[in-house]
Amino acid sequence: MLEEKFSEKYENGEDLSEEIIKAFKKSFKNEYFANISVIGADAQEMLRKWEAGDEEVVALWKQMNEWVYDGFAVTYTNLGVDFDALYYESKTYLLGKDFVQEGLEKGVFYKKEDGSVWCDLKDEGLDDKIVLRADGTAVYMTQDIGTAIQRVKDYPDIGGMIYTVGNEQDHHFKVLFLILKKLGFDWSKNLHHLSYGMVDLPSGKMKSREGTVVDADDLMVEMATTAKEISQELGKLEGYTDEEKEVLYKVIGMGALKYFILKVDPKKRILFDPKDSIDFAGNTGPFIQYTYARIQSIIRKADFDYSAEISGIDIDIREKEIVKQLQGYLAAVQLAANNQSPAVIANYTYDLVKLYNSFFQNIYILGEEDEAKKVFRVQLSKKVGDTIKNAFALLGIEVPERM
Hints:
Elements: H1 2-11, H2 18-35, H3 38-52, H4 55-79, H5 89-106, E1 109-111, E2 117-119, E3 129-132, H6 140-154, E4 161-166, H7 170-182, E5 191-196, E6 199-201, E7 204-205, H8 216-234, H9 242-262, E8 270-271, H10 274-277, H11 285-301, H12 317-327, H13 329-339, H14 343-362, H15 371-394
Parallel strand pairs: 4-5, 6-8
Antiparallel strand pairs: 1-2, 2-3, 6-7
């Protein structure tokens, strides 16, 4: 049996293939937990009471939800994330159940002898999928059906929907989109699962069973702390107040975290190392932030009018390369949108910063004696700074004016 094979390999300390683990989890959930376990039976009974509106169960559910939502609010605020609309499964599952009933009447679904409702997906090369339990309670699929339909009801002109969820849910969304298509929703062809790879630690894959998981709030604190340690080592914060330093540590830390993840194509796995992500050299957020701050320093020191239109001057090959890169910004944004990959914008910005730093290290800017060239170079620097700021804004990353 699969369970015996799993137990034997686990006790021998052998590495367990993901296929065995997934198969065991499915077997455990569908057979033991759902049909034999006392805890599973109690959980199912609470779900039945919740759907029936039992006052005690609903009150407990509301209290626990408040804890969760309050925690989410803090995390999202720290991440700089906000939402235009929120959809709760507790409100959309009823709509999902309505369409399960409609699907039964249309022959999209079928009912087993125990009363559970299923969708036959064998013609599409998939297994049958449960959409309603035998006792009439909803499953995740029921809720997702209702949520998708409600979103389109609320936003009828919507061009499509992108589900940004980890690649462990690839099968779930393939099934969801097929079911919506079978229910007759033409807009189902515009649904897309942006399947992203998992994040690994230097010590290996994050596993809840072994405790090697990372809390998002703890990670953000760690990033700010790491930024503080490295900044102090480099001695880059002379003249800052303690309050200004703390704000900057957070900006650098969050920039490092977001950029390190977003510079990689969403479909690829990521090995995340907080220390490496805050390196002030290389393809990192702080390196780009530092270049932006350097440019702002140049702008502040440019105590002359640099708004005049400049023409008829010879420019260096490095300046030409920067101009060429700047001209490609809108194309990079469009490519990122088409590919649904923020990595395109991240790496475009890094390439621009590399070109600018080569220019900065080899060519006089404020020290240039030719007035027209000096004005042009300040204008070029400002354009690079503006582009960095705009690109990072698209990635949800702040840039500091001083650093």
